[in-house]
Predict the 3D structure of the following.
Amino acid sequence: MAVNYTATVEATGEGRNGGTVRSTDGLLRHRLSIPGELGGAGDATNPEQLLAAGWAACFLGALRHAAARRGIRPTSTAVTAEVTLQHADDGGFSLRATLAPRVGGVDQRTADELAEAAHQACPYSKATRGNIPVTLAAAAI
């Protein structure tokens, strides 16, 4: 049986410069702000944080699924996602990302293998593959 879900979110106002995002079910509602590091107010979330949050959560699910498929029971798991907005050569902007999963109760080789398996399975990783550079930095803890 196919599993389908569509999340619908609308951005209004000035977009990343003082706008808002809101999901149609009302569960997600955030003001947006340009980060202080880019000269903005930095007093609200931004698209890069939202992408990093979704990617980290999705990647964590993929990591735990990869462990379960291999019969591995980590003592703990966490994922930190960094999404960097940078100036591109074409005068616009581009993204790059680092995914840093932490896996407890395994050796470094197993943590690396699980991270790679999660990166192959995670829908966010699939969607960005070949579009933005991604660094995997797994840690056995």
